[in-house]
Amino acid sequence: MMESGGVVVELKGIVKRFPGVVANDHVDIDLRSGEIHALLGENGAGKTTLMNILYGLYRADEGTITVKGRQVTLGSPKDAIDLGIGMIHQHFTLIPPMTVTENIMLGSKSEGFLTDPKRVEEAISILCDRYGLRVDPKARIWQLSVGEQQRVEIIKALYRGANILILDEPTAVLTPQETDQLFTTLRQMKKEGRALVFISHKLDEVLAISDRITVLRKGRVISTVNAAQTSKIELAKMMVERDVVFRLSKAKVQKAAEALKLESVSALDDRGLQALKNVSFSVYEGEILGLAGVAGNGQRELAQLLTGIRKRAAGRIFIRGRETTDYTPADLLDLDVSYIPEDRIESGAILDLSVTDNLILKIYPALSKGLLLDRSAAAEHADRLIKEFDVVTPSRDSLAKTLSGGNIQRLILARELSLRPRVIVASQPTRGLDVGATEYIRRKLLAERERGSAILLISEDLDEIMSLSDRIAVLYEGRIMGIVPAEKAKIEEIGLMMAGTSMKPDKEAG
Amino acid sequence: MDLRFRVEKRPPAPMWLKVTAPVISVVAALAICSALILQAGVNPLYGYYHLFVGALGSTLGLSETFVRFSPLLFTGVAVALAFTAKFWNIGAEGQLYAGGLAATFFGVSFIGAPSALIIPLMFVSGFLGGALWAVIPALLKTKLKVDEVVTTLMGNWIMWYFTSYLLTGPWKNPVTVWPESAAIAPTAEFPILVPGTRIHLGIPVALFCAFIYFLIHARSSWGYELKAIGANPKASNLMGINVTRGLVTVAILSGGIAGLAGVSELGGIHHHMKTDLSFGFGYTGIVIAMLGGLHPIGVTAAAFFMSVISTGSQVMYRVTGVPYPISEIIQGMTLACLLLGVFFTEYRIRRKKE
Predict the structure, then answer these.
(1) Is the residue at B106 inside a domain?
(2) What is the dihedral of CA A340, A345, A351, A355, to 10 degrees?
(3) Is B2 a residue whose pLDDT tops 60?
(4) In what order do the strands lie in the sheet with A195-200?
(5) Residue B296 lies in a domain
(6) Which residues, in sequence order, are CB contacts of B263 under 8 Å at separation 6+?
(7) Residues in chain A with pLDDT < 70?
(8) Does A253 touch chain B (CB under 8 A)?
(9) How far apart are CA B92 and CA B251, in angstroms?
(10) pLDDT tens by residue, B225-278
(11) Of B6, B219, B232, which has the smallest distance from its Cβ to A373's Cβ?
(12) Over A383-442, what HEC string results?
């Protein structure tokens, strides 16, 4: 075990340039054993780049890296792993068809030509118990929720002997409860003398978990402060150099007709297990129904069911008075249903198509004359939306994959909202986005609500649910635990429901 | 010295580099293959001189290049269309034979019918034959998730042996007793467009197909759908695009056009159905589609280049004695160089500094 408090990693004068941008500009930072060091900053501040350099994924253009007193060159993640550095990426590096155990064994030094899964399984169980990481070693990755997959990544790093662990936005995909669990795990690791880096842009969490906080802005270190001696406001100022609006004002909207209705809907997940049990609720025009819940309690299946890409096992769905139970995505398009999917990279946009081609995905038949697509009309449409939704892109012909995460989400929002939808299913719409983009997207959703759209907001961000919703429903193990009006909702009450305590169903009348 | 290298993603390549990459790979392939020509005891410059002059420098050479251009343009377009939607049709060869067989049926049976009836009939039946042979793998893929690379590739062999079966059995030429079909009706033979050459109707039809491909690629909403499906079928489905329909229709068109290559060779050149109707045109079509960057103009240019190499290497063989299979080595080497070239437009290799 390392001596607690000693400096284990020192990054000095790190410079990393990408074409047209300096991602890290003479960054100095040190990590100590037995501490949780937070890297705080907006999207594009250079946090991930810096840590990718420490993990050997990028090579710094300038600067030195010292690990445990020795200056090192990190040519690849393998070098970093050999030095006891582990990294949990925002996008996981797991192989979906393989089991948890197989993923953990993969590439591990301790495996020879012949493997012994039993032994690894035991080792995994021991790690699981020690750090409170609940996961089934025999499950296949594609069957796991995002939160569970993250636990697998952490176990993988620990199994490889990481005592310097980098977590890139680990809570972006977690619910409050899962976050608490993760924090317990992190504190346990800290107590054992490991050095932890916690990348985030969530102020509350950073303050709750870290010992020291380094704020990055536009690739530069603004300051490194002790968590105990700073405040949320101070950090926010350092981070964005402006006062952040934390609350959104919401106009009263008269509730009107029922736009979306689920009647005792059940559905299976990919494993063939019941993911939704007897789910019934309605969403009315001009309201946002917030669906809170811990990851993996049926949110994904519900969203897929409502967008026509998952078959129900039982029950009926009505949209704007019409039964749409077995509708395909194409059928739903005609009913003015818009969808903001949770995996925006895979389902929300087509990254290898241009910005224009992405913006016309749902309306190109209307832009066609006979068999031919009216390219100039498409360009006009794209220009208009790029301007209206402030999509930052080199040109309308650039590939969508060249855009930042926040701008890809704006692109998706532009495409979906320009259809003037009557029903919107928004799944984790602000996950992983910076403060500016998050605020923008929330405002847009509120504007849609005022326009009269019925919005189902599926989110694991409880603040988001609380500040946007008219009513809040909680999903737990595939069941609706209760639906409460937002103004009467108490956060403890919601938390209890998310943990599986059923509330007396509030009268659901409008 | 520690020689370690790392591969890095480079900034997006400028347009001119993407366009010149195929040209550079062609030059590189020719340079590498010059070693083989040298090994055959011939000065490579002398050999390539005869290759290019042989293919382009005389009326006869040029006309033969165009004769070869026809099947290669058909298969190149067929493969490129399918690849646009990432339907990996490796089966243009089998679809070519399927098209040839279907056209033979009508060409042999309708003795005495006027050309204006029988030739269109051969094209339509050949298209349908090829389409049928491609739509089976497409249905297997979309309905049962069977990998189309395997099914289309295996389909080539099934169709080739089926052809062989017919031509040595029920369809055997009753006059010559050769393993080939009876001659198609004289009215089914394609008109020669340039007297004194073998330039036939199949060539403008192939160019017409390339033009249709251009319209689909650049202008049509269907082509846009195909690109979306190819780039991300999951998201396309979510956007309301009918992915199954897109894949099945592109398979029909791709297989049909590959079938036309068989019709063209049958009606324009051989006038009998044969087991060597194709010299691997279906496979060369894959090289052409990739070399042409799945772009109509690129594919047309690549098909022409491959025709030049194919025709020219025969001339080079006759004049200098360099064995003509060099043509296929050049084709394969060009693809290898191109794949490497595409890699270098996206990545660069750097020495590790220690």
Answers:
(1) yes
(2) 40
(3) no
(4) A85-88, A164-168, A195-200, A36-40, A212-217, A220-226
(5) no
(6) B99, B100, B103, B122, B123, B126, B127, B202
(7) 1-4, 19-20, 42-44, 109-113, 172-173, 236, 240-255, 271, 294-295, 492, 495, 499-510
(8) no
(9) 10
(10) 999 999 999 999 999 999 999 999 999 999 999 999 999 999 999 999 999 999
(11) B219
(12) HHHHHHCCCCCCCCCCEHHHCCHHHHHHHHHHHHHCCCCCEEEEECCCCCCCHHHHHHHH
Residue A60: per-residue pLDDT: 93
User: Could you tell me if residue B5 is inside a domain?
Assistant: no
pLDDT value for A246: 44
Q: Determine, for residues A347 and B353 on separate chains, whether the beta-carbon distance falls below 8 Å.
A: no
Whether residue B234 and residue A76 make contact (CB cut-off 8 A), yes or no, is no
Identify all chain A residues contacting B236, using CB atoms and an 8 Å cutoff. 350, 361
Inter-residue contact A57 to B7 (CB < 8 Å): no
DSSP class of residue A470 equals: S
Q: What pLDDT is attached to residue A288?
A: 94
| Total count of domains within chain B | 1
Burial class (CB in 10 A: 0-12, 13-18, 19+), B20: middle
DSSP SS3 for A351: coil
Test B354 with A329 for CB contact under 8 angstroms.
Answer: no
* The Cα angle at residue A368 between residues A367 and A373, in degrees rounded to 5: 100
Confidence (pLDDT) at A507: 43
Chain B residue numbers touching A19 (CB-CB < 8 A): 11
Taking only the tens place, the pLDDT of each residue in B20-65 is 888 888 999 999 999 999 998 999 999 999 999 999 999 999 999 9
The chain B residue lying nearest A361, using CA atoms, is: B239
**ipTM, 2 decimals?**
0.83
pLDDT of residue A67: 94
Query: What is the spatial distance between Cα A264 and Cα A316, in angstroms, rounded to a whole number?
Result: 7
Domain around B81: 71-278
Chain B: residue nearest A351 by CA?
B231
Across the interface, do A73 and B354 touch by the CB < 8 Å criterion?
A: yes
Tokens at residue B325, please? 């299979």
**Cα A385 from Cα A356, distance rounded (Å):** 9
Q: What is the pLDDT of residue A240?
A: 59
Judge whether A182 and A170 are in contact, CB under 8 Å.
Answer: yes
* Burial bucket for residue A289 (CB in 10 Å: 0-12, 13-18, 19+): buried
Contacts of B239 in chain A (CB under 8 A): 329, 333, 361-362
Tokens 């006759």 sit at which residue?
Answer: B318
pLDDT tens digits for B282-334? 999 999 999 998 999 999 999 999 999 999 999 999 999 898 889 889 988 98
- Chain B within 8 Å of A357 (Cβ-Cβ)? yes
For residue B315, tell me if it sits in a domain: no
Predicted model pTM: 0.73
Looking only at the bridges linking them, the beta strands covering A274-284 and A85-88 are: unpaired
Is A350–B238 a contact, with Cβ atoms under 8 angstroms apart?
no
